[in-house]
């Protein structure tokens, strides 16, 4: 049994456990959370649940490795900076890089950033992006900045807008997707025992694991890619809730999966797009608006569309991004 101290208040449960269960593989930590063996104040929780000062965290018996030094050390890496001051760092995360280690990944952005800045006393992720999603990512340099920013995300005071290229002509009238989501696990591969890959699906609001998810959509351009006749739509997507795979699942459930999505898209279509030069999912965390945790200033950040995505778009579609105002709403 662990009791949460004031210094840990506001942390995600998984990060809290990583700190207290050094030497326990992260995959095992996630497994005991998913199985319900970890409880906060006797209630079942998720990995992204937040702990508060005074909470009691119940744990099952776990075996701590006596030699955690065998873990892979993260190489130091710098990332393109969008903003840095005494309170926070905003980076432009590249696609293909996880934000943190775990679930089969030895290290991610935060571990590489800490390795590159050994003198930094505090570096913590404020929020998450999928591994294959590029764009704006915030890292706090102070505990006070972390808790203040996370409170803004939790109370939906931030504005997060993504760029997504989807299959088909998106209906102009479809501007709000309000459909609950639930996480589930695929069966183990080849009939083997154990847990498979994590997925998310749209469920009825009465589903026991339903989590409300709201996504706003605005069509920026309708287009076809060079050498391809299939209609596609470039969307500005703003999320009002930050559920796992929310944008990917909402858009796919509406019949318009994100181009290049290897989980919720069509396999043959993905192969065809790869031949045209799309080697990754076309989802980019484009803009982020928030209140600076120290100064109270309104901050609006924008990460340019990566060249591997921008070069696929016709010139007219790229031009819409240059004229899109940061105060525009989807």
Sequence of secondary-structure elements: EHHEEEEEHEEHEEEEEEHHEEHH
Largest sheet: 10 strands, mixed
Please tell me the CATH architecture of the largest domain by its name. 2-Layer Sandwich
CATH topology of the largest domain: Pseudouridine synthase
Helical percent range? 10-25%
Global mean pLDDT: 89
Count of all domains: 3
Helix and strand composition category: alpha+beta
| Cα-to-Cα separation, first versus last residue | 46 Å
What labels describe this entry?
20% helix, 8 helices, globular, Pseudouridine synthase, 3 domains, 330 residues, four-stranded antiparallel sheet, alpha+beta, Structural Genomics Hypothetical 15.5 Kd Protein In mrcA-pckA Intergenic Region, Chain A
Short description:
This protein has 330 residues and is α+β, with helices and mostly antiparallel strands.
Description:
The structure is a single chain. This protein is of the alpha+beta class. The chain has 3 domains: 2-61, Roll (Structural Genomics Hypothetical 15.5 Kd Protein In mrcA-pckA Intergenic Region, Chain A); 71-154, Pseudouridine synthase; 159-323, Pseudouridine synthase. The chain is 20% helix and 26% strand. It contains 8 helices and 16 strands. The strands form 3 sheets. Strands 5, 6, 7, 8, 9, 10, 13, 14, 15 and 16 form a 10-stranded mixed β-sheet that branches. Strands 1-4-2-3 form a 4-stranded antiparallel β-sheet, with no helix packed on it. Strands 11-12 form a two-stranded antiparallel ribbon. The longest helix is centred in the middle third of the chain and has 12 residues, at 143-154. The radius of gyration is 20 Å and the shape is globular. Mean pLDDT is 89; it is low at 66-70.
